[in-house]
Amino acid sequence: MNTKKVIIGTSLYLILSVSCGGEDRRKEYAEFTEIPHWIESVMRENYYWYENIPTKGLNFFAEPDVFFNSLLSNEDGKRRNGKQYYYSTLKDLSKTANTRSLQQTEHSYGFDFVLYKLENTGSTTAIYAALILYVVPNSPAERAGLKRGIWILDINDKTITEANYNMLSGGEAAELSIGIWLENGISRLGVCSIEAACEIEDNPVYYYNIYEAPDNGKRIGYLVYNHFTAGKTENDKAYNGDLLEVSNIFKSEEINECILDLRYNNGGLLTSAQLLCAILAPQSALGKSAGYLEFNDKYNPQIEEITLNPNNLQGGTNLNLTTLYVITGEATASASEMLINTLSPYMKVILIGMQTEGKNVGSITFKDDRYTWELQPIVCKIYNSENKSDYASGFEPNYTIEENKGTNLDRFFELGNPNELLLNAALNIINETYQENEQKAVSRLSPWEMTPIHCSLARRATNGVIVR
Known about the structure:
The protein is of the alpha+beta class. Among the domains are: 111-194, Pdz3 Domain (Roll); 205-363 and 379-437, Alpha-Beta Complex (2-enoyl-CoA Hydratase, Chain A, domain 1), CATH 3.90.226.10. The protein has helices spanning 2-17, 26-46, 64-69, 140-143, 238-252, 270-280, 335-343, 421-431, 436-443, and strands at 78-80, 83-85, 89-92, 111-120, 126-135, 151-155, 158-159, 174-182, 185-194, 205-212, 219-225, 257-261, 289-295, 303-307, 323-328, 348-353, 361-363, 366-367, 373-376, 378-383, 399-400, 448-455, 465-466. The strands form five sheets. Strands 4, 5, 6, 7, 8, 9 and 22 form a seven-stranded antiparallel beta sheet that branches. A six-stranded mixed beta sheet has the order 10-11-12-15-16-21, with helices on both faces. A hairpin with a 2-residue loop joins strand 8 (174-182) and strand 9 (185-194). The longest helix is centred in the N-terminal third of the chain and has 21 residues, at 26-46. It is globular and about 70 Å long. This is Tail specific protease domain-containing protein. Residues 191-402 form the Tail specific protease domain. One of its GO terms (cellular component) is outer membrane-bounded periplasmic space.
């Protein structure tokens, strides 16, 4: 009985493998399916949840991205609005520039934004508008005079909608209808002209300054750090060098408190996170454990230790802080959260803003010179020195403040302005003059219902801390 089954199966295989003219087509089929086979082999060896990959029913004739998604676990990523958003990714490098740095924006106007649907309680009509979060220096947006807090309502006389907001990410020279937020909503300012999108350099060390608390004389360093990127290209370390330079400036200015603004930082490289941790940590923590990476049980070793390495500080200095104030937002994720988790055992970390994303995992990039595809699966879970990795739901802030809610928008000033909502709150907390109850009362007064539709920061979100 078993022999008969084998004969039938072999006969069918031979029939399917030979064309009507007797030509053997198995080699052609192998060439057509080799990319899915490569993807599967990498995933079965390296994927953190490899045990959840189906063992049957895989379609190796599917397009690579479709095949890749069929391998992914529901433990990978987050479920939002009934849809699973995976952290593991597959990219076709033939459609993207693979020579640019991790976060450098290609052919952009040079600003990040959130698209909102705005509904007034006294009206049945909704409008869509894009709020500028920040503008990249030396970009078309900066040259056009655009600033943080400006609203964009139209582009080339076309009202911004859910269907066309991607025009704001880059394109030809354009005319933008802009406005500002007043108490009763958006007031139109007029039209500004913006140059065609171009390749820009988005340095993560966006802004830094030093403030003095009036009541206690504390000197406070403030750093806006927008992504964990070492340099302009894969082997460049210029941005890490800028971090080290800031550490030297803060040290020479004798700061004794520090505010780290990560509200728009959705992750990046493990090595850059280790560097910033070494700068900010108490001196007594240097050389000690920063935690470890836990890979799947096929890895050898399965556990990879990471340290607060003082050797990373060559060209810079440790600030020997005992408390760190971190401004967070809903985009704060990945390496930003790793920094919070890593430093918490060694110092007091106070979070100001909104709950973070909750990416406690890391990824590795896999390439094969034969293919144009880049595979970046989640390969590990990240723990601190106290074996804690319990932030998959995000870190809750000690002080919850939503910068773009209601009448808080009248304090949506430039980053670094001491009256800007979140920086001002942090300064007042350090100065011991912050009144939380007043802040909550103000936040409830707005007649506007604001629903976020899209945030441009998502384009550069990393799928977990990039281990290597």
